[in-house]
């Protein structure tokens, strides 16, 4: 049965290119109203998977449903509902940014009036209004990324597939991207984002799918990620007092850094445990100069997965 509000469901999907098994066995769900992060090292199959979801590549086996449709059997139903932002954008160099968007709108069958107003609205959303009448070739890499995002949104798709959307963006544009993606999810859209910048995904994503060597190795919500064991770094003045105190509480630690900026890394089971340790150290008159999580929640999961440097 077709469920247009079904988001994305992927089960047992595989795809090879000759002898290269780009995707071996991937399962995940990306529900509507949420941002799902696709995380994995270079060559783990993320782009191949996105191409399958976008109906641009067929899976060799497995089940895929995008907004209730099978991309291999019903590509036009899928394409009308999916906005796809590839990791590198080919631009029509002589067209202006506005013309690029309007041309795409025409391809999606939008009327002249509808595509003009939608294109103008999207140029505002991605902060490109002053470049709307410039040929797309003069846009910087980050500006081209933003145009690519606007392109993906032209037909107001229910499902968004964004491959490395933050790459090339300056910090201000990354913050704008984050709030744009959150607002699209809040409108009920299904958003899938692949990125290597895990600290950023912590802020954007509701859930994450970790892939390695073509397999999905973990599915996790950000709430679950936030309650797992986490590494904290701690610095004190002097470090010897910190070492002695930790030793007396039976807390083991690793030393990181150099003599100029030495710090201890400690594994803690929860934020409550971290709060207890910080309080105990301070009450024990250890002069703490820094105490913070060593990485974001997703980065901690990524580092903890036993998949030879996933
Ligand atoms: N058309 C193709 N022909 C042959 N091999 C391919 C093809 N497309 C992808 N591959 C291979 O499949 C594997 C997965 O590639 P894919 O681009 O999906 O990875 P990725 O996770 O997106 O990587 P990155 O993070 O570097 O973008 C790689 O080993 C890649 O070389």
Automatic annotation (TrEMBL):
Pfam families linked to this entry: ABC_tran
Gene3D superfamilies: P-loop containing nucleotide triphosphate hydrolases
MF (Gene Ontology): ATP binding; ATP hydrolysis activity
Source organism, top-level taxon: Bacteria
InterPro entries tied to this protein: AAA+_ATPase, ABC_transporter-like_ATP-bd, P-loop_NTPase
Keyword annotations: ATP-binding, Nucleotide-binding, Transport
SMART domains registered for this protein in UniProt: AAA
Domain (ABC transporter) ranges: 8-238
Family indicated by similarity: Belongs to the ABC transporter superfamily.
Protein name: ABC transporter ATP-binding protein
Organism: Arthrobacter echini
């Amino acid at each position: 049965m077709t469920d247009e509000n079904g988001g994305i469901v992927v089960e047992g999907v595989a795809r090879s290119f000759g002898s290269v098994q780009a995707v071996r066995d991937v399962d995940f769900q990306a529900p509507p109203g949420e941002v799902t992060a696709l995380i994995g090292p270079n060559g783990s199959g993320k782009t191949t998977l996105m191409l399958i979801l976008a109906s641009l590549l067929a899976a060799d086996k497995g089940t895929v449903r995008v907004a209730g449709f099978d991309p291999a059997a019903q590509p036009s139903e899928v394409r009308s509902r999916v906005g796809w932002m590839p990791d590198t954008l080919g631009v029509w160099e002589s067209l202006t940014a506005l013309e690029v968007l309007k041309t795409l709108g025409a391809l999606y069958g939008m009327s002249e009036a509808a595509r003009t107003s939608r294109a103008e609205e999207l140029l505002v959303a991605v902060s490109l209004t002053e470049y709307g009448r410039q040929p797309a070739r003069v846009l910087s890499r980050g500006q081209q990324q933003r145009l690519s995002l606007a392109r993906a949104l032209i037909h107001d798709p229910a499902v968004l597939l964004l491959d490395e959307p933050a790459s090339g963006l300056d910090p201000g544009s990354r913050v704008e991207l984050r709030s744009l993606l959150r607002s699209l999810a809040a409108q009920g859209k299904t958003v899938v984002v692949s990125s290597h910048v895990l600290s950023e995904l912590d802020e954007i994503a509701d859930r994450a799918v970790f892939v390695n060597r073509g397999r999905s190795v973990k599915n996790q919500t950000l709430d679950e990620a936030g309650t797992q064991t986490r590494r904290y770094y701690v610095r004190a003045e002097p470090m010897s007092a910190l070492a002695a105190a930790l030793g007396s509480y039976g807390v083991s630690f690793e030393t990181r850094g150099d003599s100029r900026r030495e710090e201890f890394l400690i594994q803690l089971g929860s934020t409550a445990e971290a709060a207890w340790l910080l309080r105990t150290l301070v009450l024990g008159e250890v002069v703490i100069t820094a105490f913070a999580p060593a990485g974001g929640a997703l980065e901690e999961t990524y580092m903890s997965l036993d998949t030879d440097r996933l």
